[in-house]
Amino acid sequence: MLFFRSLAFCCALWLTADWALADQPTPIVLWHGMGDSCCNPYSLGYFAKELEEDIPGVYVHSLRIGNNFAEDTENGFFMRVDKQVQKACMIIKKDPNLKAGYNAIGFSQGSQFLRAVAQRCPDPPMLNLVSLGGQHQGVYGLPHCLYPTHKWCDFVRRALNYLAYESVIQKMLVQAQYWHNPTREDEYKHGSLFLADINNELVINADYKNNLLKLKNFVLVRFNNDTMVEPISSEWFGFYKPGQALIELPLELTDLYKQDRLGLKQLKESGRLHFLQVNGDHLKFSREWFNKEITEKYLK
Ligand SMILES: *[C@@H]1O[C@H](CO)[C@@H](O)[C@H](O)[C@H]1NC(C)=O
């Protein structure tokens, strides 16, 4: 009798726990952009709070790379991207709230970093990836820096124009690691420590492709009047046609797509690669737009 009662009790508990879990919204991981930090009350901290209001009960984890906010911001300029991605993977794996899977939202460079997390660290699974103004084919120009303007911006910009593929600059500067000079494709493919690797430029890493294909949806948001990213088409995985820096190719006309080096063709053909656009400058979107186009469709 006692046995049956405890059995019933255990199963009732188990069912309740299961039901409660099924009812919880999918947790969300955020990764901030250059010059920003995980929890800045005027940017990502504010955005996280809005998400929590708009998706009741959601768990939001804004990644902090470093021991405090200042370190997190500096690391966005100076910590080797591979190391940042490795840290992010560890943080995500250690968070018990994320173990059943999570959605991810990247801001600017945080978008390509989260894509690297999806490609390199499939456990726990990333379900939907939203890229807000990410530079998936890199940048060839950094006309402005992000809010709040950071003291390192101008230095970074100058260094990259001349020395992006010098090994010492590659190792030191985050933005050099996704600098893509279309007039020196060969140097980029051999010299870029981060972007050339995650974009399977020299070799095809089958894990990267297979893992990216596990995404339910990959949402690419482009800001049509972006003054901070050059070229803007990089936000949709497009880039300058190799050998020059005037004509831009959309993703579908690049080798990356035609040879399906990353699985993007398969993602698109299965209706899981989405191209959204917003009229406005870098990361300038309204809460209403975000709720209608992103939250309702991919996060709820
Ligand atoms: C933003 O870009 C779009 C598309 O290129 C264009 O139609 C629109 O006029 C631009 N808006 C502003 C304010 O420049």
Question: What is the secondary structure topology, with strand pairs?
Answer:
Blueprint: H1 2-23, E1 28-31, H2 44-54, E2 60-62, H3 69-78, H4 81-94, E3 102-107, H5 109-120, E4 126-132, H6 153-163, H7 167-172, H8 185-191, H9 195-198, H10 206-212, E5 217-223, E6 239-240, E7 248-249, H11 255-258, H12 264-269, E8 273-278, H13 287-299
Bound molecules: 2-acetamido-2-deoxy-beta-D-glucopyranose (NAG).
Word description of this protein:
- Helix 4 crosses helix 5 and helix 5 packs across helix 10.
- Helices cover 42% and strands 12% of the residues.
- The protein starts with a helix and ends with a helix.
- It has a single domain, classed as Alpha/Beta hydrolase fold, catalytic domain (Rossmann fold, 3-Layer(aba) Sandwich), CATH 3.40.50.
- It binds 2-acetamido-2-deoxy-beta-D-glucopyranose.
- The site of 2-acetamido-2-deoxy-beta-D-glucopyranose (NAG) has 3 residues, from loops.
CATH H-level homologous superfamily name: Alpha/Beta hydrolase fold, catalytic domain
CATH architecture classification name = 3-Layer(aba) Sandwich
The backbone outline, from C-alpha atoms, is: globular
Low-confidence regions: 1-19
Alpha-beta content class = alpha/beta
**Total beta-strand segments:** 8
CATH topology: Rossmann fold
